[in-house]
Amino acid sequence: MKKDIILAGVGGQGILSIATVIGEAALQEGLYLKQAEIHGMSQRGGDVQSNLRLSSEPIMSDLIAKGGADLIISLEPMEALRYTEYLKPDGWIVSSCVPFLNIPNYPELEDVLARIRAHKNHVLLDVEALAKEAGAPAQAANMVLLGAAIPMLGIDHDKMIAGVARVFARKGETIVNTNIAAVEKGYAFSVR
Amino acid sequence: MKHLLLGDEAIAQGAIDAGLSGVYAYPGTPSTEITEYIQLAVSRQSLAISCRWATNEKTALEAALGMSYMGKRAIVCMKHVGMNVCADAFMNAAITGVNGGLIVIAADDPSMHSSQNEQDSRFYAKFAMIPCLEPSNQQEAYDMMAYGFELSERLKTPVLLRVTTRMAHSRAVVQTVEAPKAQNTMSMPKDVNHFILLPAFAKRNYAELVAAQPTFVAESNTAGYNCYVKGAKPQKAILTTGIAYNYLMENYDPAMGCSILKVTQYPLPTALVDQMVQDGAKEILVIEEGQPVVEELIRGMVPSEIVIKGRLMGDLPRMGELTPDSVRAALGMEALPTREKEAIVVGRPPALCQGCGHRDMYAALNEVAREYAAPRIFGDIGCYTLGALSPFHAIHACVEMGASVTMAKGAADAGQHPAIAVIGDSTFTHSGMTGLLDCVNANANVVVLISDNLTTGMTGGQDSAGTGRLEQICCGLGVAPEHVRVVVPLPKNMEEIKNVLREEIDYNGTSVVIARRECIQTLKRHLKSQKAKG
Q1: Residue A44 carries which DSSP code?
Q2: DSSP for residue B157
Q3: Which pLDDT band holds residue B124 (cuts at 50, 70, 90)?
């Protein structure tokens, strides 16, 4: 088993929480893991990404090669497209369709979404609306996105849910349950 | 025990487990998490480790040397440019030598993700003639702390541990020991004169350091961290260092049959390089992260007919971080099939947070500056450097920590008016205070605008050394109290701030305007923790 994943978004959106949950589940599976993060200046509203590599064999590089990624998980549609040259020809894009508008020259949203739809393997979803439907706060939108990516992760759905429960356990049962509801909502959207 | 740790965290845990007594550091990406991890461990587990942030990298290194003098183990952590700040202490610590183990950790930032240059700290180890460790993965980073302390105490020398962004900020599983080693007890140096660098003693010490060089090389030759494997086709050899080894092995096909020398400890292991040559190397590809340090050094070590390839020769990019792709190309392998870059994607540069006090400070400053024919505003290092970008375009220079104050002074000396420095509170105490004394002594016609957000913001909100005492510090340095002004950068105070700025610009002498409002990121955190406490 080997999955190379690029997590993308805008600084502050919460891509690292997605990485934390996947990492937790992967470690329980006994997989090797490397996860390169971006800290520092670019966190201030700039584009951020994290390279997450999972494998049943030891992993060498912390970075994913161009054309090597199985999956892009993005909390922002244009940010998903920023990394397409890293995607395998048959790789997946799982992205929120809600733009993060903090720049004056953001392209036409419909054009951005059309470029994502041009990829054969894609899932586009309104993570904020789905979080709301799941009865979860807006901060749990990243968990909806994680749920939507589960079918492409190569880790069993139930083991991912158990990972969510462990990561949020110290925040109490209510938070665990709303986050699981958010993950399930995204998962249901993806496998519908 | 197994833990999922950032490279920085692996270093921190490795230091704790090796009997650390003190960590001394100034925050700087990508090194900050080392100290933060130790601070958290100290507060959660009540460890007896000194871990308060230092005012700058020089005070940090000197305190660590004092800890070492007393026989205890200390680390100093900084980003690469911090090495420039502590260079005086660093170079001379190599001459004094150490008592307790001393490891200086420099986190380099090739590709300048969060930095103003990509200098390679391995040059400093070579310059100071001390051993340097360069782990290739998080486990080695952890293990090298215990090893580094042992090496430092045995060879009586400080050791430099060099990592790069991708090691510092990448997570992997690390196996740690069950119980930490006990801290050293206090002990005086056997020869106290070793720490008195009067010329007579310094000459003797330096002669000892020079004489120790073959020992350092012998350590590199035999240390388990350096390894050489002869290939089936040894005419082609690869010398790779630190994290670059991973990019090699990510791509490497054993059918290539190259001899491979992996270096993670310096000085270079000359015996292993010689062995590679004796095994028939006709061509050596040097793959190293950062500047071409080894590629230059090795030219003097191997016969001149051997072809050396690497960053200098253009086989790898001369600048920037290595990638699996650039190393793949250097190995002569074809790139993986991929897709086009999407043309629709535009840049999303970092920006000051909405609601940040620096924004209101720049809004006022820009309006006042426009009233003068040719204002010059000298910026400094911090979040507020983003004032150079849209929509403010407010600053005309930004060089290194503290330079705003002294560059403004130099500009004023040259006849510039108004000459304004913009500097954050933490940067001011790091390296701006001494420059302000220069201004006072010359009664330079400058305005030093301290944008005080009560924290070290850009690195994530660490304590700032002068919080609550900036007015006292400025008055203590000799700025006239009536020209130390404090404003609150909020839109409702715009007219007042502008008036204060005008008055101080028009005053012919040194003045300080402190624009003080808490960083909104730390404010959010404080409100959240207050709410949690009820």
Answers
A1: T
A2: S
A3: very high
* Residue spans of chain A under pLDDT 70: 40-43
DSSP character at residue B456: B
| Two tokens, residue A19 | 């990485």
Q: Check residue A43 and give its pLDDT.
A: 65
State which amino acid sits at residue B295. Answer: E
Instruction: Give the containing element (helix H, strand E) for B504.
Output: helix B494-506
- Residues B121, B102: Cα–Cα separation, whole Å: 17
- Measured between alpha carbons, how far is A57 from A30 in angstroms, rounded to an integer? 10
* CB pair distance less than 8 Å for A40 and B338: no
Are B266 and B289 in contact by the 8 Å Cβ rule? The answer is: no
For residue B339, what pLDDT is reported?
Answer: 85
The answer to whether B324 contacts chain A (CB < 8 Å) is yes
Q: Mean pLDDT of all residues in chain B? A: 97
**Mutation for B interface: A20, A27, A44, most B CBs within 10 A:** A44
In whole angstroms, give the CA distance from residue B260 to residue B258.
6
Quote the DSSP letter at residue A20.
H
State the ipTM, two decimals.
0.94
**Letter string b/e over residues B217-230, b meaning 16 or more CB atoms within 10 A of that residue's CB:** bebbbebebbebeb
pLDDT confidence tier of residue B25, bands split at 50, 70 and 90: very high
Which 3-state string (H, E, C) describes B381-428?
CCHHHHHHCCCCCCCCECCCCCHHHHHHHHHHHCCCCCEEEEEEHHHH
Rg (CA), chain B: 25
The pLDDT of B187-201, averaged and rounded, is 94
Task: Indicate the residue of B171, B173, B346 with minimum beta-carbon distance to A107.
Answer: B346
Q: Could you tell me which residues are beta bridge partners of residue B485? A: B513
